[in-house]
Design brief:
The chain is an alpha/beta fold. It has 12 helices and 14 strands. The chain folds into 2 domains: about 140 residues, Medium-chain alcohol dehydrogenases, catalytic domain (Quinone Oxidoreductase, Chain A, domain 1); about 160 residues, NAD(P)-binding Rossmann-like Domain (Rossmann fold). Helix 5 packs across helix 6 and helix 10 packs antiparallel against helix 11. The termini are far apart.
Length: about 375
């Protein structure tokens, strides 16, 4: 009997040791991703609970503060954020089909799981917390970033982003100025440099046409092109002509004073056209490229997301492919026609010629801005 008791005690002791050893190994195998514990506090934010017009906007004090889920993420305390045209479109449901695939590629979540959805793509603020794999930032650093449209936005007190989406904020800019630049700067840079192939070495003397020149992308593009020595023709309204001339535009075409197509016929053809407008402009804009010269037309308005919203995933992608293919065949003799591609000018201090003050700050009108 004593022998049996001893065996039972030894077995229980062994099981206990094995159990605790297993727990210890389990703890060691779980990699920490952040130096702080998960938080459950709330923050103020502008959100939408469904797609629609401006009445779907809701200000809440009870949005959950984001936490770090991956070791390369950074939490930023927002000091300034801005509203872009894509925010207005996303509020109405633009791109929801494609963006939800990006958010949930395995289709685990039910429809509407993206809500409450925070809008806003630009942020300038201060790093509050870093994942353990983040090497180039630390808490207290002033940073700026452009947040991808499939992630929760920046119209909130805090936002979590990947470390590769963040750069140190230039010391020459205030938070308000810095928040006006990232998304439009990345868009303009990708169109000009990554897609258009232009840079400070090959742009001198090039003739450039910018359609929709007075918006965020257009004003940034004018300044970059002029800094690189290009001749810039800007298409905008008469109200904005003084602005674009101050930024360096050589010629200004007022789209309200008559047909833009007719007005451009008196000018020489262009090496590069940046189309921020889309729609019917594409039907005539390509005619103003230099023939057989490698001239490039870049549009920022593509049918891809709209086709997916309207026709679904498979049919939408097919329709987009047919549209792009037919355009390429029909206009191959004119020049290159390109869509948008990503790039990053945010890792450097802005040149002295670039003036972020051209983008006005209206912090008291965030919600109203989404109506335009």
């Amino acid at each position: 009997m004593e022998f049996l008791k001893t065996c039972v005690l030894r077995r229980n002791a062994c099981n206990a040791v094995c159990f605790w050893r297993s727990r210890a190994v389990q703890k060691l195998s779980v990699r920490k991703i952040s130096t702080t514990s998960p938080r459950s506090t709330v923050m103020p934010a502008w959100v939408i609970d469904k797609y629609g017009k401006n009445e779907v906007l809701r200000f809440t004090q009870n949005m959950m503060i984001p936490v770090i889920h991956y070791p390369n993420e950074v939490i930023i305390k927002v000091h300034a954020a801005s509203v872009n045209p894509i925010d207005v479109n996303m509020r109405s449901g633009y791109g929801a089909t494609a963006l939800n695939i990006k958010r949930d590629p395995l289709h685990i979540k039910t429809k509407g799981e993206e809500f409450p959805l925070t809008l806003g793509r630009d942020v300038s603020g201060v790093v509050m917390e870093c994942g353990l794999d983040v090497r180039y930032f630390k808490p207290g650093d002033e940073v700026w970033a452009a947040v991808p449209p499939w992630k929760q936005g920046t119209l909130s007190e805090f936002v979590v982003v990947s470390g590769n989406e963040v750069s140190l904020k230039p010391k020459s800019l205030t938070h308000t100025q810095a928040a006006s630049l990232p998304y439009v700067a990345l868009t303009a840079w990708s169109a000009i440099n990554k897609v258009g192939g232009l840079n400070d070495k090959n742009c001198t003397g090039k003739r450039v046409l910018i359609l929709g020149a007075s918006g965020g992308v257009g004003t940034f593009a004018i300044q970059v092109m002029k800094a690189w020595g290009a001749h810039v023709t800007a298409v905008c309204s008469q109200d904005a002509s003084e602005l674009v001339r101050k930024l360096g535009a050589d010629d200004v075409v007022d789209y309200k004073s008559g047909s833009v197509e007719e007005q451009l016929k008196s000018l020489k053809p262009f090496d590069f056209i940046l189309d921020n407008v889309g729609g019917s402009t594409e039907t005539w804009a390509l005619n103003f490229l230099k023939k057989w010269s490698g001239a490039t037309y870049v549009t920022l308005v593509t049918p891809f997301l709209l086709n997916m919203d309207r026709l679904g995933i498979a049919d939408g992608m097919l329709q987009t492919g047919v549209t792009v293919g037919s355009k390429a065949l029909k206009r191959s003799q004119v020049g290159r026609e390109r869509g948008r591609e990503a790039g990053s000018p945010l890792s450097r201090e802005p040149d002295a010629e670039l003036d972020p003050r051209t983008l006005r700050s209206r912090p008291e009108r965030k919600a109203e801005a989404l109506t335009h």
